[in-house]
Amino acid sequence: MTAVWPDTIWVIGCGNMGGSILQAWLDQGAPPEAVTVIDPAPSRLPKGLTARADMPAGDSPDLVLLSVKPHMLNDVASELNVRLGPDSTLVSILAGTELAMLHQALPQSGTIVRLMPNMAVTVGKSPMIMISQDDSADLRARMNALFDPLGPPEWLDNEDQMHVATALSGSGPAFLFRFIDALARGAEDLGMAPDQAARLALAMVEGAAELAAASSYDPGTLADQVASPYGVTRKGLDVMDADERVNILLHDVLKAAMERNIEMAEEARDAD
């Protein structure tokens, strides 16, 4: 899948996520001369680029990546809206900021897409979760080509699904990092050297994830295939499975994150 790079790309907000997406685009061949970074204090500016504090005058941009903090939407919109045109496509990664709010704040934009990535964009492994009021095949093909190098595109049909998708995919890396850390700490408590426990936990999770991705079996089936009856792995799984403790824990984790995302959307609507 080959991207057709827009003639003009504005990146508004060049922090961890915005800068990571931009770097991935540049690595895939986006022409640096097409990119304008708008951020008075960028924290992840790709090498060779400069940033400006204000938005350039002149023709409307073809593509805008909006990656500021959600509470900054109205401040940015007052200047951005007059520079957008009917052919501009705006991609927003603002958490909790719904399509209706984006369209209200930026009515001059031709097309608006909500995108939820995670920090695995830096290694090209983040699910790129998207939704737009424009459900045309052309838009999806263009966005898929732009974002596929950062990870597999996933389109939602219902914006309400963005809340749980944010909890699962957007916040999920942090939950997995905590799990990896807990595995290492458990091994350390049982007598292994801390640095070796950390290396083994990380390498095991990396290998297991690749195995699960390559397998035709779902992860639950794989777990049972690894565990021989009355064997070592089965004893460990019995602890995890007792009283559905792992399922209940992760349900509660995702539910808490999802509910906070819903609250953020409500807060954004109330502040509008």
UniProtKB/TrEMBL annotation:
Residues 9-96 form the Pyrroline-5-carboxylate reductase catalytic N-terminal domain. GO terms for biological process: L-proline biosynthetic process. It is found in: Cytoplasm. Keywords: Amino-acid biosynthesis, Cytoplasm, NADP, Oxidoreductase, Proline biosynthesis. It comes from the Bacteria. Pfam families: F420_oxidored, P5CR_dimer. GO terms for cellular component: cytoplasm. Residues 159-264 form the Pyrroline-5-carboxylate reductase dimerisation domain. Pathway: Amino-acid biosynthesis; L-proline biosynthesis; L-proline from L-glutamate 5-semialdehyde: step 1/1. GO terms for molecular function: pyrroline-5-carboxylate reductase activity. It catalyses: L-proline + NADP(+) = (S)-1-pyrroline-5-carboxylate + NADPH + 2 H(+); L-proline + NAD(+) = (S)-1-pyrroline-5-carboxylate + NADH + 2 H(+). Belongs to the pyrroline-5-carboxylate reductase family. Catalyzes the reduction of 1-pyrroline-5-carboxylate (PCA) to L-proline. This is Pyrroline-5-carboxylate reductase. It comes from Parasphingorhabdus marina DSM 22363.
